[in-house]
Design brief:
Length: 379
């Protein structure tokens, strides 16, 4: 990572500390302005939904990262969580419990000790941002990219399309992913003489790391253009076809009666092919792994809740798809993520079809306190 020291030749030594402070302060303000611009640029629906994705900027001592659960589009210079980089790196030396819940609680508390301002809880992927040796990092979940990362032949195709990228099989998000990637990044650096600028995560998304905003944009454009060409070659449309259908207020009322407090708000769209299983953490958090496709009866709703431990967030009717939630925002996000999942499933057809998350991976996300927190922020 290039750190500007500022000019010193011909300067009065007595004035040097103040001048260096001024130069570095201006550089910091410029960097924060840049990461806000990048966050807004990549915080659009083509790249993320809801509180998905995260961004960061760093210098030698400090990491500024998006707060957990917040939207990229809503970030300002003042809303980034400030972290002590040395303290964050100490996390990799801590002995953690084998039991997932105890481990994640320890990690959450440890990360809280590294926070130096009052901007909230840092993104769960902050340790990964910290070990990437570039000034800027932008992590998103574009449906165009996830059509590749969620596909059965995704790895083989990714290595052909992006030979310099680092591909990582599905690993539980957060601490486990950061620890595993630390070793992968160190190995990549030994082999290539520099760290990876593109990391593709199976059933998750993409990290792009660079020292300038222009390079971040260029790297993303290269990836997006490459996958678009593959979809075009396969004859697969990138847009989602949603069948026209009349609104169904009577069905919305029935959904509210059947699911009660979990369906205080209901939104809907025309019919599309909902993905029938878990594909990424974001889809699990905002839309659940499995849509409700049975007859709208109290018995069917109770059976769904018994099988899965909670009510659905997406209900598939005869000619419409419904997003439900305790708030209007939650209901809208459920429908948006259901549509996003349908697009991913459609695009994965170019690379051998959709490859679902395992039950173990799904259950980790469903029971992870961090994701419950992220969802509560989105409410």
């Amino acid at each position: 990572m290039n750190i500007d020291k500022g000019p010193t030749k011909g300067i009065n030594p007595d004035s040097l500390p103040k001048m260096l402070y001024t130069v570095r302060t201006k550089k910091l303000m410029d960097d924060l302005k840049t990461i806000v611009e990048l966050s807004h640029e990549f915080g659009t629906p083509n790249y993320v939904k809801g509180g998905g994705g995260n961004t960061s900027v760093k210098n030698e001592t400090t990491l500024w990262v998006k707060p957990s659960g917040t939207t990229l589009g809503g970030l300002t210079e003042a809303t980034f969580v400030t972290l002590n980089r040395n303290k964050v790196n100490e996390l990799f030396e801590v002995e953690t419990p084998a039991q997932p819940a105890a481990r994640e609680e320890l990690v959450k508390n440890f990360m809280a000790e590294a926070v130096e301002n009052e901007a909230g809880r840092p993104s769960v992927e902050a340790p990964l941002h910290n070990i990437l040796d570039t000034r800027f990092v932008v992590h998103t979940h574009p449906f165009l990219v996830n059509g590749l990362t969620c596909a059965k032949n995704g790895e083989a195709t990714a290595k052909q399309l992006f030979p310099d990228a680092l591909w990582v099989e599905y690993i539980d998000a957060g601490y486990t992913l950061s620890v595993e990637l630390k070793g992968r990044i160190e190995q990549y650096t030994r082999e290539h003489g520099k760290g990876p600028k593109i990391i593709l995560l199976k059933n998750h998304g993409i990290f792009v790391a660079a020292d300038t905003a222009d390079e971040i944009r260029s790297l993303y454009a290269g990836v997006m253009d490459a996958v678009k060409r593959e979809y075009e070659k396969a004859g697969i449309q990138t847009g989602l076809e949603i069948a026209e259908a009349e609104t169904a207020p009577e069905i919305e009322e029935q959904i509210q009666q059947v699911f009660g407090a979990d369906a205080q708000h209901v939104v809907s769209s025309g019919m599309f092919a909902c993905v029938p299983g878990p594909i990424t953490p974001d889809h699990l958090v905002y839309a659940r792994a499995f849509p409700f496709t049975d007859e709208l009866t109290g018995e069917a709703a109770a059976n769904y809740k018994t099988r899965h431990g909670f009510s659905p967030k997406v209900v598939v009717g005869t000619n419409r798809v419904f997003g439900i939630g305790t708030t209007l925002n939650n209901a809208q996000l459920a429908l948006e993520l259901a549509q996003d999942g349908a697009q991913v499933m459609q695009l994965a057809g170019a690379f051998g079809g959709i490859d679902y998350m395992t039950d173990r991976a799904r259950e980790f996300i469903e029971n992870w306190e961090v994701e419950s927190y992220r969802q509560s922020v989105a409410s």
